[in-house]
Amino acid sequence: MIIIPFLNWFFKRFSEVTKNYTLIKSKPDSQLAIYVTENIDDYVSVVVESCNDKICDNEVVSLEILNNDNVSYDNKNAYIGVLNTTIQNLVDVEDDKLWQQLLVLNLVENTEKNVFDYYCFCEKILTDELIAFVNNSNIGYDYSEIRSEYENETQSAFFLSILKCNNLNNKHYREILKTLNRSYRTSGFSVENVSSDKILILIDIDVIPMLESSLLFLREHYPDAIMPYVKKYIDTYVNEILEVAFDKVEALNVLLLPIEDGHKLKLLEYIKSPLSANKSQYSDAIKAHILTKKFDESDIPHFIISYSSEGKATKSAIEEITLREVQDIFYKEYGIDRNLFDKLLATEIPLNTKIRLFASLLPSLDELQCKHYLQKLQLNDYLSLFENKRPLLAFDKVNKCLLSVFTEKKWITKYEPEDKDGESFYRAIGCKAQSKEKIEATV
């Protein structure tokens, strides 16, 4: 045959031509076109060897070669190996055995239809080359329109295959599943081994709506996704799920989420045990509710010190707790916020209660502040200590506490027990005044 020597000569003469078959087909009635058509398999073999690894035939003539029964499978594969032309529709290549190589070499337009058609060709399996093909795409995927071209069963299989594929990049994973418009709205989610980042995507795009069965499954298999899941569907969670699937530890974590106070109050109805209100994620209203309805004694030292920085409702709750727990505050020697003391000092509570609260405040006061409160409390014996007096004071826990602080601050020389007329007292020995500022002065 003279075809091969002729073509070898032809390509040496026109080696710079990368669209050779396109040029030949532009004059289909020419002797050369007829000659090549009659010897097409030899032509493809020679053109592949002579093209310097680059063929840029247009899509129409490329498909003619790929769909020509007179071109051998090996020559078609070789032609694909040097082809630089993109095939718009994979199904236009009639021999589906060529599809894999076309995909691997990115010679197919990256479209939703081509992805779906190749998936069906692979017996509904996301093969490695298909995953790579999808991941290499710079465009977005939208199956809103095209999905209707495929049977419902095929759509379901594709949806599940994508959902289980941890190797897809998150952008395309999100786009594909969202536009397939499927979810576990009725059946409940029960797919294992989905990566944590993709579980969060499934929650975000409403693939896993809030159902009791889905929540229980996520608790067991994807515990780190529970908070995003609950936050996404907080209305359903508090109004429908809590009653049938309450979990205290989970509820405590949900309380820390940035959700509406109404939802938190609903959650608190299901928590029966005492609960700390000392959380920065709680609003003024929630703190006040917890202090009032779920009071935890361990909160006392924090809130009687943090009073000034709290909201109005919380302050009111702290005031009530302070009065109710004054004995505990005094005996455990908790410190107290000065503004809290001022607020309670101005009320009609008993004097002995005010004095006990004063004992809790005293360690934080300087001399002038102390004199100010002694005058308001009419504790004249203690005022006399600043003038080097030696008063007798009742032998009780309150006086011992006050005198201990006076001693530590060096406002008195000492104090000691003393019996008089069969009764026990404390004899306190004062110091000379250190300054002449007015008692009324405060800081």
Quick summary:
The protein is mostly helical and 443 residues long.
Following the backbone from N to C, one meets helices and strands in this order, namely HHHHHHHHHHHHHHHHHHHHHHHHHEHEE
Mean pLDDT level: 92
Alpha carbon gyration radius: 43 Å
In helices, the fraction of residues equals 40-55%
Share of β-strand residues: under 5%
Write the layout of secondary structure elements.
Blueprint: H1 3-13, H2 20-25, H3 31-38, H4 40-50, H5 59-66, H6 73-82, H7 99-104, H8 112-121, H9 128-135, H10 152-164, H11 170-180, H12 196-204, H13 212-221, H14 226-232, H15 234-245, H16 248-254, H17 261-268, H18 284-293, H19 300-306, H20 312-324, H21 326-331, H22 338-345, H23 351-361, H24 367-376, H25 380-384, E1 392-394, H26 397-408, E2 412-420, E3 423-430
Antiparallel strand pairs: 1-3, 2-3
Provide structural commentary.
The chain is mainly α. Among the domains are: 296-360, no CATH class; 365-443, Ribosomal Protein S8, Chain: A, domain 1 (2-Layer Sandwich). The chain contains 26 helices and three strands. It has helices at 3-13, 20-25, 31-38, 40-50, 59-66, 73-82, 99-104, 112-121, 128-135, 152-164, 170-180, 196-204, 212-221, 226-232, 234-245, 248-254, 261-268, 284-293, 300-306, 312-324, 326-331, 338-345, 351-361, 367-376, 380-384, 397-408, and strands spanning 392-394, 412-420, 423-430. The protein is rod-shaped, with a radius of gyration of 43 Å. Mean pLDDT is 92; it is low at 433-443.
